[in-house]
């Protein structure tokens, strides 16, 4: 039986990972598996958003080590914020990541409430009114 090594998807060769170059103090982050894991309400980085786009476009990329690790760390941070504050409202980027992993939270009342808070607090501009004379 031959074993073959799967090459990372082509999208990964263009992916620039600069997450370790962040100059955050150790009070703001902890290092997990070589990546920085924010404890507080940090904005999702561009690298995480790009990893999410790659994972959406290519299912095999979602299981690639770096992509998977970035998304898992982001999800972990989001989930911890949700658990720590039952009034926490996810940002648009956080919701996108949380939604990507929605299957993990299928029967969770906490996750359903978090999604409801997101949608309830979504600010959408009303359509422009039709000026009639």
TrEMBL record:
Protein name: Uncharacterized protein
């Amino acid at each position: 039986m031959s074993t073959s090594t799967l090459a990372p998807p082509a999208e990964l060769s263009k992916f620039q990972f600069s997450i370790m170059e962040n100059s955050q103090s150790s009070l703001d982050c902890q290092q997990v598996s070589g990546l920085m894991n924010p404890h507080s309400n940090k904005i999702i980085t561009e690298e995480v958003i790009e990893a999410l786009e790659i994972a959406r476009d290519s299912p095999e990329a979602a299981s690639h080590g770096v992509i998977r690790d970035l998304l898992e760390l982001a999800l972990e941070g989001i989930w911890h914020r949700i658990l720590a504050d039952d009034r926490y409202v996810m940002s648009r980027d956080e919701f996108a990541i949380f939604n990507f992993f929605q299957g993990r939270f299928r029967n969770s009342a906490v996750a359903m409430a978090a999604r409801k808070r997101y949608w309830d607090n979504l600010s959408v501009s009303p359509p422009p009114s039709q000026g009639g004379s």
